[in-house]
Design brief:
Strand content: 15-25%
Largest sheet: 7 strands, mixed
CATH architecture of one domain: 4-Layer Sandwich
Bound molecules: zinc ion
Strand order of the largest sheet: 1-2-3-4-5-6-7
Number of strands: 12
Length: about 325
Amino acid sequence: MPELELRALAPDVYACLQPDRGLGFSNSGLVGRGRGLVVDTFWDLAHTRALRSEYERVLKRPPGQLLNTHHNGDHCWGNQLFPEAEILAHRSCAERFGRERPEAMQALRELVDHPDPALRALAEALAEWDFRGIELRPPTRVLDSDLELDLGGRPVHLLHVGPAHTAGDVIAHLPEDGVLFAGDILFRLCTPIGWEGTTEQWIRALDRIEALAPEVIVPGHGPLCGVEGVREQRAYLRYVREEAEHFFRAGLPVLEAARRLDLGPYAGWTEPERVVFNLERAYRELRGDPWDAPLDVTALFRGMFTLRRDPDFPRRGARAETA
Ligand SMILES: [Zn+2]
């Protein structure tokens, strides 16, 4: 049975949180007034079915709208279980919808006996998920810029802040409720991982959230927080970018840079080995490559696997007390 926690944040406003147990344990949100709005579904049908049951406990009728904050499967592969809803997303999300395929993830999940230990580890990390039966249901209402919705007389602002974590990143702000759904712009107490975009734009997106001064932020992954969560992640991204510059100039490969980087307070976040992604993105920028230049995901996951087995990782010295 999926482990979920429904939290009331304001009248008719809820978060449905999954405890962070690794890859894919994302959060969702619900505004239960007016036509109703769900913010993100989960990675597979079993978890999204459980999500829908939680929401049915507090909803009077099925939600008429569903926002996908971005195109990663852990935020939209349960869309088909909200068939009544119009699906909103940014155009860049819609364009990338379906680039990741459930059949391919299911094939990876089944590699538990593969001779390659890195692939076996990835399969084990996916053990909680079952990608069978997923029919991708793409956005039906595409945003080209910010959009203001009226839900029962109170506004919900959908703001495009990408390319930061992906090209189509959208956050949902409820100014009168003091609530913000951050999607994967914010990872809380877990190491962020990003795909398309730049560190600079990601920092700008976090600045924007801070300026909106929400009382409660629902991160894409990890527990609820306030703006302190935004500040800590921004400090992490700045720190990794600064350190990446030294390593890049010294000609160090990303994996070696990840080994040497002193993660300081961030060593305690879950999955610190994701720093290889963050360093690779920083290197991409330092090389002057485009923000959407593809990452070698297999090589990066292999790098993460190597780090996880390294008894000296993560390094945690006195230098990085910046959070
Ligand atoms: Zn995610």
